[in-house]
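Saturday, quiet lab. Running sequence design on the structure tokens for the scaffold JK sent over.
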């Protein structure tokens, strides 16, 4: 299975940004963990992060063009604002998992609404940085969809 792990704005600050919420592991560390886990289960992960909405949309479109099997998306703040990312995800036919390091429903009320959730197959939230590894594990148990 080929998997894109797409991360949105400020996720590049993991490890230093609000460690009481997001933990102390850096994005580089999470990426390394995902690469190692994927290799163990025979998958390939491409790990990406952007602070720019349009770039995230282009990566989703690239997943469509290249028939990528799954997208794991932590859209970060764009979760609550981006119709463009929602629309791009709706166009993608592979597995789609929305991921949050924290549980948005335990935070500020503006984080309670996700524009991403209606466009994905599942949502994983509140498992900390290890949620990424758990999603790779989950995907390894699913049959590959025909895109």
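Result came back. Writing it out in full:
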């Amino acid at each position: 299975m080929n998997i894109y792990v797409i991360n949105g704005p400020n996720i590049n600050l993991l490890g230093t940004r609000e460690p009481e919420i997001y933990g102390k592991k850096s994005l580089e560390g999470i990426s390394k963990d995902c690469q190692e886990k994927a290799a163990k289960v025979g998958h390939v992960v491409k790990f990406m992060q952007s602070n720019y909405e349009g770039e995230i949309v282009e990566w989703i479109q690239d997943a469509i063009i290249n028939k990528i099997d799954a997208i794991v998306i932590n859209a970060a703040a764009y979760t609550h604002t981006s119709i463009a990312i929602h629309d791009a995800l709706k166009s993608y036919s592979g597995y789609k998992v929305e991921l949050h390091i924290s549980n948005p429903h335990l935070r500020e009320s503006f984080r309670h609404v996700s524009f991403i959730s209606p466009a994905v197959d599942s949502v994983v939230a509140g498992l900390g940085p290890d949620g990424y590894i758990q999603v790779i594990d989950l995907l390894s148990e699913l049959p590959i969809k025909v895109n």
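Notes for JK: The chain has five helices and five strands. The longest strand covers residues 2-7. Ask whether to fix the surface positions before the next round.
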